[in-house]
Amino acid sequence: MSEADVSDDSRSSPDRILFPKPPQPQGLPNVQEPLRSGVRPGSEKVFVYEESSPPSADPSTQTVPSDQRVTLQVGERHFTTTKDTLTLGSDYFARMLSGRWPCEAQEDGSYFVDADGTIFEHILRYLRHNVFPVSYDRIKGHDFGLYAALLEQARFFGVDNLAKWLENNNYFKAVRTEHHARLVANVYSFNDAVSSDMELEYYPSWTTERVYVCPRGIGVHRGNPNACGRACKNFQGNADDEYVKEQELKIVAIEKKTVFVHEVCFEGSENS
After folding, report:
1. Which residues pair with 200 in a beta bridge?
2. Tens digits of per-residue pLDDT, 165-175?
3. What's the DSSP call for residue 154?
4. 39: Cβ–Cβ under 8 A, 6 or more apart, which residues?
């Protein structure tokens, strides 16, 4: 045995000798943990076996630590998140990152997924926050095209709770519209200010009305018999009250308010 094969400990202590590890007998399973030390029978000398390197693991089946950051290339877009975020809500990523699937990272360390990155952005947002997506425009309404694409990806990635929420059309419960109608009192002078969650529409209409005429022709009494006092009654005498038919403009205001029900979008809510 050359000096190169002897450790520093064996040089400093004559009772410590380095021995090469004995060959593994054929027919027996490979020993993963080498024997580190022992005592030769009838001797006080301590001998140490050389450690052999463990067999290298297939990089395509290695398990990713739960707290490790993971970079995905979905289509042409890159996303960085953690293994826990991906695997706790997705059967697809739970299998992909478990080591049971042959899934080798690319040269830049990312994992390639052949899917639409624009749609996956909503999938990842749900996996991070457990908040169901709602895409609603007050003019166009719900984005049903987005919901259909999301449902397809949710099924593909095994995000069951999101797929079920979309299948049940629960996004309709998240947005509610309320309508109220009122008659505008003075059509010649009105000014309505509304909040951004409300739309206000006006519908004019002409109607025929019977309008009271004061016996003395006083304009401020027109349309209001109670405005005439004793002088008007004395002037009228025994004649009946006079009414004329006139066209009158009326305006109906329709208030449409959009109400967003936040709790419907939270996972575990009674309304979700």
Report:
1. 255
2. 999 999 999 99
3. H
4. 45, 46, 47
